[in-house]
């Protein structure tokens, strides 16, 4: 897939910060979705916790923004999407949620936006203001320093743009802020960029990684250090690892953990997400764990039909997609631009997220791996993700791994 070109992602194509609340780095109305202006006044404003304040302070670090901007796949795909929807942006009012340095807001202004509200709770907003001035766009781009839940904007907007995705798609829990902005300010029929997202998972083999982290201790300059193995496994594999793998590491086609429609999704639906999976190994190889990655799609303005509205009035448990459940599968536009973080695509600063086992499982070709995964917001800090993974192979015992992305 060519990033920035018209394409439709499926998470995998055929080929022959998880640290103490720090953001990703080192890779790093009426009808559902459209709320009336009257309804928007009744929206619940979540409190700004000490964890939130620490999160915003972390994003004041210029290095984080440098890394994201230097991610060519990320930044060029956003720019391509803005230009593809220039007709929906030109002469219109735009909101950039979590604007950072303001680069996406400036892209929108250059695409002809009448006005852009660039909102960021981090002190990087002060630099964004200076960048806007340096580019003679102060008459178009209004930088607002504060949470989108707290700022005051006196008009509805035509477009919302945001780069809200974290590791595992939902880490950092920024999407609820986009949902809040959508429900309070987006006009019916407005545009959200990106519009849809899908989180994928697949079993992987990665003997090199296991050897480097664990087997190293078996013989260290001729010294037997095997007593270090339990600690080495715990240190290397207890928490999710953000790494870059290739398609050669992946043992099967992936399954979707969840599809997110940014026009209709509700914040409460993101608090806990569960999916069952069943894979058939295409190779005989040691199974070292699972990889997760995501695609986001930039699709056009959305008007929900009555059928779609009724569909989303179901309970949140019914909204979670089983990988084999296609009853709600959306038909993607052939014109939609896709930003993919899949292993076989060009690398991004998101890389892939790996959940390793402490001990590999030997798989035979055509052997079944099945189980379930649950991603839930931490009660301690909603920006963290707790992960509950159940897995087994056919004819073997079942295992459970509990971990968290902090």
UniProtKB/TrEMBL annotation:
One of its GO terms (molecular function) is histone methyltransferase activity. Residues 1-10 have a biased composition (Polar residues). InterPro entries: Arg_MeTrfase, PRMT_dom, SAM-dependent_MTases_sf. Residues 196-302, 334-393 form the Protein arginine N-methyltransferase domain. Residues 14-28 have a biased composition (Basic residues). Residues 1-36 are annotated as: Disordered. Keywords: Methyltransferase, S-adenosyl-L-methionine, Transferase. CDD domains: AdoMet_MTases. GO terms for biological process: methylation. Arginine methyltransferase that can both catalyze the formation of omega-N monomethylarginine (MMA) and asymmetrical dimethylarginine (aDMA). PANTHER family: PROTEIN ARGININE N-METHYLTRANSFERASE, PROTEIN ARGININE N-METHYLTRANSFERASE 6. This is Protein arginine N-methyltransferase domain-containing protein. It comes from Platanthera zijinensis. The gene is PRMT6.
